[in-house]
Fold these 2 entries.
Entry 1:
Amino acid sequence: MPRAMSRTACRTCGQQVSTNGLAKASHARKHVREGLLVEIESNYWADGQMQHSRLFVAPTTARRYLDNEPGVGWRVIAGTPAPASKEN
Ligand SMILES: [Zn+2]
């Protein structure tokens, strides 16, 4: 039976976490401290307004954002992105 507080499986560790935004962010920050996730943010223009987005992503994904979307201006808030790829 579904409970009043809805829960979702964490994509990093599989643990059930609350879908509440703050609870999810604090759970994600635990993984940032463990080196499993990186917190990144960007400000960009869309629809004539400055938008802000903040993400928790794996270190390799963070590296991809930083390398491939320079125009969007992603920057690292916390954690360590994977080293730059030597492929290009
Ligand atoms: Zn987790």
Entry 2:
Amino acid sequence: MKKAKDIMTTKNLTRLVVSMAVLMTLLAAYVVATNRRPAFIGGDATPECRSVVVVTSGDTLSKLLADQGLGHNEITAIANVLKSDAGIATLRADNDKIEFLRDSDDSPVSKIVVIPSPWRQVELTCGEDGAWKCNTVDIERDVHVVYRTGEILDGDSFYLAGSRAGIPAGILADVYDLLAFEMDFERDVRAGQKFSVLYEENFSGGEKVDNGRVIAIAFEALRGDVKMYRFRKSDGTSGYYDENGNGAIKSLKRTPINNAKITSNFSGGRKHPVLGYTRAHKGVDFRAATGTPIPAAGAGRVVARSYNRGHGNFVKIRHNKEFETLYAHMSRFAKNVKVGTNVRQGQIIGYAGSTGLSTGPHLHYEIIRNGKHVNPMTVKLPAISNLGTADKKKFLEYRKVVDEAIQQLDGKPNLFIQM
Ligand SMILES: [Zn+2]
């Protein structure tokens, strides 16, 4: 890995230094500078006196503490302070780790460190008065901003091309979700299209720990280039915006199920495969195996969860005064989704099937605008958040800086911007 100093050999030194400084100022605001400590804790304890337990399914805090020889009263005290001071009420299997430290092999536990994420540790120590105290420590992360470019080849999926470009799976999934607001991966993706992603990698103690956020995306889609930039507004909230500063996150998704192939389009009149006569197809059909989870295309309130002869099991969601969506032929409904339930975008509302008038398992998806069926693939969808005048001005300056940073990183996959 090359550090920032290696970029200094390039021609545009001054411009780069300026653009990096501005980028760092603009992007670094979120790096919380308080209560930091380098790398991992417990350097003063010898390895013999430390044991690490990875929480597995069926483990409870009480059980793990009892295994370490702690008594009932201490266990209750630790659970209470962990809940009140660190907000940890339950342990998550295959995620959380707990370190137990002792002065010597046969002495009692003197310190417990609960590790719910690579970037946060909760230290519990027993004071001389016998009371357990809790202290949360944020681990310092060293953020590298990297740039990857790729191209769709014949027979490629976006995922395949993305992994060939060296983009990690988690980042690709985020990029996919973001692009899904603007693109239809089934119809807008062709061989020869290029794409790029600017994103964060988080390091600690010189080792990569995980990936951060997607900062910018570009995709040469069939219906025009799609560009998105992550931007932090003056109110502190962040979102994604196109190159002109319009909100890129739409209130509804054109394709609720990622990567689903369209088997039938919206049309004014087509021959119905079961009824045999011509009638309008008021939605879009996506191929989906029976049992495929169906996410809500947008946040809203469930107004129907029912069965009829045509739609089979269906759910209808009202999103706002203007828009409703309908999902048909479900094999079953999600348990917690009833009429009146408020759902968030992406929440699973049911599972694909072939109930009602259907020739095979698929999702029939409708968007209804002001009571009229519209084509989900072409209807103009409202952005969740657009920028005010002041934020828009800032965004356009910020976008220039990001674009310049991209130019510097382009074609040099070993370079990164350190923040
Ligand atoms: Zn249909």
